[in-house]
Fold each of these.
Amino acid sequence: MTLGFLQLLKAIPWPERPAHPLRWVVLPTAILPAILWPPGLVAAGPAISQSPAAQAAATPTPPPLPNPTFVVVRADRQGYDQQLGRFVATGNVEAEFNGWRLLADRVELAERSRSVFASGRIRLTKGDQYLQASRLRYSDWEASGEIDDVYGVIDQDTMALDAQPGTPTPASMKPGPAFACPQLTADTPGRTVVRVLPPGRIGLPTMPAPDGCPGLELSRPVLPLEQVLKAVAFGPPQSGLETPQLTSPSSKNSPSSKNSPSPRTADPAAIKVDPRVRNVAFQQSWSTSVKLNLAAVIDTTDSLNSAGQGYRPPTNQAGTISRLRFQGSQIRIRGNRWTAEQMAFTNDPFTPAASWSLARKVVAVMDGQGVTRINSRSTQILLDDKVSLPAMANTTVGAEEARFAWDTDQQDRDGFYIGYNLEPIQLGRSGSLQLQPQLMVQRAIEGRTSSFVLPGESLGNPPGEQGATFGDMFGLLASLNLPMGWASLNAEASLATLNPENVRSGTRSTTRFSAPLNLPGHETASAALFGSYRERIYNGSLGLQTVVYSYGANLAGTAVFNRPQQPADNPSAMPATPRQKGPFFTPVTLSWAAQSGNYQATLFETNTLETLWRSYANLAVSSTLQLWQGLAMDDSEDPARGLRYSPTPVIPGLGLTMGANGYVTSYSDGAKQNTLTLWGGPSFTVGQFDKPFFDYTRFSASIAGTFLGGASPFGFDRTVDLRTLSFQAAQQIYGPLVLEAGATFNIDNNSEFYGDVSYSYVELKLQRRSYEVGVYYSPYDGIGGIRVKLNDFNFAGTGTPFVPRPRNR
């Protein structure tokens, strides 16, 4: 949003010297909206709500510009200095255009230097996008400028919608957002945080307070001579700014009353910081992990070919963080790029922020397609202002990804390898192709490989050991995302070698051409054509199975019933489950799928390949009978209440979770496999995860029984776990420290796999509202590693600046 806002500054349609000086009284209706919108959409309308003096002076009406658009400009005082060629509006200046809204204390437009200057509580809003600053200067002649004390909120989910022109709402019907001052903190320059990789300690960064905010005289650095001269040329900054979010007990109901203390003289200890957010709701997560001692890569949970039998937690998904708050002391504009000494970003809607990242020596460039690419000399993630983790130094807004990647893959890559993410290749308007060349470090050191079937042998045979050639030292990951109107094409390919003799057994790929379906009563529905080559399928006690190739078609849908009613006054709000005294059923989820395709895979417990046509229909239903439910924490006084250690409020309760899952499968050789799985078990939560000791315990267990008719000839979908017992448990130890574990056992005493563990894991994690850091290990898979997860939130409001600043020195 920041760069888009700067780009709009360049679109100001600076006119030639007007024949009538009073034309500048109307020019703000064209110039100020141009700051907010591209020139093709800018038009002028009559200025209204001007001061009486300005209205009297504006009797000669200039000719209207073509294609007038309704625009509102308000100011307590307006004037034009004909000798200096400068229009000045002061006091509650406001402009609206196509839904964008600009508020400031002072706006100056200089004709001769073709520059605009704004100061004092600058706020820019449209939809879910928000930006504020204390000072803005931009020169069209120089194509340069600065913005000071920048803070804002960007929502990538609604940015495209907010960028569309819309009808503005009259200012008299909606008050503007109040200017947000940073929080007052302790003496932060004396604090240090632990840096992880490489080890060491660093000082906690701070940013100065904007003009008019408490603590200004303690944190404002000495300005360079150039900025001092500019301030003199454009006039002194506005003082006496109201800061409604900073209130003392005597001014709680009237922050701007005359009885309230001045921001510069108020006692910092008596000031309460309003977080200025409400309706906070968890949306999704971004997750990444570094795996150690890896025996197998589990990446098949979402496969269309998976039979869906047995319990297994989802794999780490890349995800996105769509809503960010950002802050910086100063942004410098130079053409189509902007630079900053420091820029901070956070995914936490509250202040103080539990997690935020700091980038130093930032350079951002917008290309011709509107994509912003950000480079920084160093970037770090700060967790609770105590721990510093290295982060990405290069990123593309909307497609964040670290440049270097490293991992361990014993099955396909013989161990440790390093990858490098190239710049995404743009395909059309919104398509992309991402490539990651890889270097097989451990394979190169050992000089041999045991990941591939020996040349000339059947792909159904197990891998054999052979000497590694030069081509075996390199690999490639490729990901294609190509929207095609109402449908989309997605494909992934993994080449674990570039040796031509091993490519056929060192390549895995999946392709899916899908389109959403609008079916009555469904939450989601889709139709897809799919294809795969050497796709891995997880099948309970049988472990990982490989399908040599498959192709076919799939239909799937999900419907939810018994959902709580949404609030009538806010239909878009997240529905909350009402507390009920007696037992009640939670929402019932109904999922169905139908698929038919051609498969080549190994037959059950053999290395023999067979090619058969396989078709199935699936229907699953699940719900929870809630026997008792406690009260959620009261967040009326503090919106962050109950979100201290969890992204969602923890509600105590006791329930019985149950479900049924049925498959009807047929094969072209006449074989059939029909299953009906019934499962259920208790689940309970104790505590609300708000106190520091043992205030959160979660446990769930499930017994599943399967009625089986027939048997699949293949191994990848053969049902062998007819009776299973699964459990998951989590326990708060101290503060955000949580121990979690889970496992699934085969309890069918008639099965050859009786007593086997089909999955198990244990994880010790540091869990907070906006992030999780966990160390995990799975004895079954042989996977251990470190996992980092950042949470994404939807919320209403602008929030407050989150970078700490000193209260005293």
Amino acid sequence: MTRFELEVSERFLRRTFEKGVGRSLSKILAELITNSDDSYKRLGATGSSETPGKPRVIRIVAERAKRRFSVVDQAQGLTVVEMKERFVEYGKESGDAKRGYQTRSLFGKGLRDVLFTQKFGVVKSIKEGKSAIAEFGWRARKGTERRPTIDIDPGPKVTSEFRKGLGILGNGTRVEFQLREDVPFPRHEALCDRIRNFYMLRVINMSPSREIRIETHDKRGEVEETTIHFVPLRGEVLVEQEATLKFEGLEFPTKVTIQRAPGDLTQGEAGVEDRVGGLLILDEDGNALDLTLFKYDRDTLAARIFGEVVVGGAGKYIRGKLNQDPPEEVLTEIREGLDRKHVFYKQLAALVEPYLGPIVDEEEKLRRKPAGSFSERTEERLSDAMDVLNKLYEELVGKADRGDEFRGRKPFIPAVLACIRNELAITEGVMTPFALLVNTSAIPDGTVVKLNTSSADITVSPSDFAVSHEDAKDGLLTKVSHLIADHAGAAATITAEAPQGKAVASIRAIPETIFYPVNGMDFDPSSLNLHEGKQRQLELYVDCEKIPIGSAITLSVDNPSIVFGKPDVETREVHKITDEIACIRIGISGSGIGNQGKVEATHGPFSAKAFVRVVEKKKGAPPPPRGMRFKRPVFEDIPRKLQTTMRSDGTVVINMADELNKRYFGTDPHHAVESELQCQVRLAELVLDECLNEIVTKAWGRTLRQRFPDDPATDIRMYVAQKKFEIGPLFHDAFVTLYVRSTKTDAAAPSQESGTAGVSTALPESPKDLRDSAAKRPS
């Protein structure tokens, strides 16, 4: 047998190193600063006392002319042997935790990720009067392929001149690198801001025992120096709670502190490097793991929220996962916090979000909003327009949260695991809930249940979850995953499996829309717009196991202006979509615009209700609503550099602090939209863009094929443009109406042929016209 050693390409190795820090100077310097901080921690743990009232200094030197950065400390220093132990084996844990040191080192990669991705890197160190130097670079091994190499050698004799050149007084280390050309060299003030705010450095920047000095040398040789600190935020304490995070059979004592700042803070919209607000997630050693508000990360109602979540045992858990075979990442290697897909993050979110929810709800009441409201007619048009987007959301992403996912099946306690339905039909391309029941007395807390599909044509997400006894009720835990099928006719077996047992369900995809009624029968959708004199159809879904084929169903409505095609209907074999579900289409019409009524279908103890209304017929009117992800837009002053944003509940927020929005909507946006065409168009475009971005982003890689997987930004932008082209006219037809204003014109009245005598539909032609128009509107 001939054995070959795997050859790894230079390109792959460079991408591996770059994965951690990329072109982010904040992440690059954070790795080196935390290394120095760890060295100071080890020094303190060995009994070397720090001078009372005098912090240990970490010095950053930025030389613009040479594009060179240096990070200098006066900590332990390194010998040649120690350099070999720490630098040569990539990915090896430092072992500090085993020695009792409370350091951050997790991946065992940080310094090498930095020095192997920049143009030049060297570590110079002095320890016990001797120097050592390690040079990092790429050198040819054979042909054109190069390999990362480290030259480690004793340095020159330690003299006062040598110490002065390194800036090291006793023991210490200086790490130098030349910044790549594609990484911008920041101004001094910008560099200070980045280092001050970056979440990974937040604890170090607040510590009285550390001092970070940034020293910038410009091209003329002038020096600017700043000592930076992150001043702890102050605010009203809203939550201060001890809790326990439980999963995988483990318990993590957790302290949650949530505060409200006097004003808005930058949150998730600013990105991980510039964010100020949010909850700082810390492990038992005070190491920063993340800065997040979980599902409220970009919700403008959470803009004032900040605080801390200290999770005891998190650091130990993360190290354990990295050291297992195969290793598992709880923290992202790209230094952007916890992995959002990992069970640790999901369980932590489930613990903290119930504290955040009521706070966000309360903030909504405190928000400064423009006075006024829309007329009932405009509210109806807005509702119709949002229905267009909600239907697209359901088609591409899935149904919005509709409460009870069991659809009429009563939960029971299984022996171990059970599917609420052993056979399930789903609509092609529509994400459909799939309920699983867990007996918590048979499965230990923290046990991971995996869900597998027998066919790639039907996918299930999430593909696993951790059993949480805390979330169970009377020994029963219910978990809802989601299924999606690529095409009609697809079939698969979904297996939910734990060490203690498994459950199996047969899934098949059909082209028709299917709805599982909760109580024997249900209308879906439960509301419908009628056009005067024109018959439409209500869809009544019936559970044939409760209401057998051949059963008579009585119909009634509380308004005589609304009538059925037939006064009653009967379930027939032709109505069946599956063996257990039938869909009866009921003709209904109405007269008198504005009339509305409640429809009721009954059979014995079973009943279903729907709401209908008669509205003005509009060309291209959208079909009735299916989901309710998006809600009607609201106007608010938001001190953010954005024109619109989306709340976590699906409300589109129009930012009245935006200058362009002010020009269009003035001081009374409701009146502006009611009365001026250009304002209706502006609002329609803002809402379309915001909602389509969310729909496409969520659907990309699910129901929307990844055409350019290496360039998601371009692919998503192109999909948004495509969907806007497809449904834009429907949205505008539903909401935008041509408004005409009376004018005092005798000399230049339009011709009678135009049909608009005495009116004007001219729009402002310049920003000045828009401002003047806005200024004239009543406040």
